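Records of this kind hold a single protein each, on a pair of labelled lines. With that in mind, the following record should read easily:
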Amino acid sequence: MIAAVLLLHASLLAGPGPQLAQSWDDLSTGQRFDAMRNYQQHESRPPEQQQQVEKQYQKWQQMPEGERNRVRQNFERYQSLPPQQRDEFQQRYERWKQTPRQ
């Protein structure tokens, strides 16, 4: 699971398409540093949170490649927003989450 957490982080950084990291050796020095930092943060979390991350990673792995690319693109667009717009988006999302579904 350690490798899975490290490669998930690296794959999110790498972007869409075939350039996704398949092994540790495929990562740049910066990606390795970020992946190790991510792993250390993962290990410092309570076991319940670690299990939730691992469950989300399994869900990610099961997604079709096109869907994963769409998620990456949306994340990149979100990250490129100015901080105020990200805050507004987050507030709208929180309100949407609270809206009852039928």
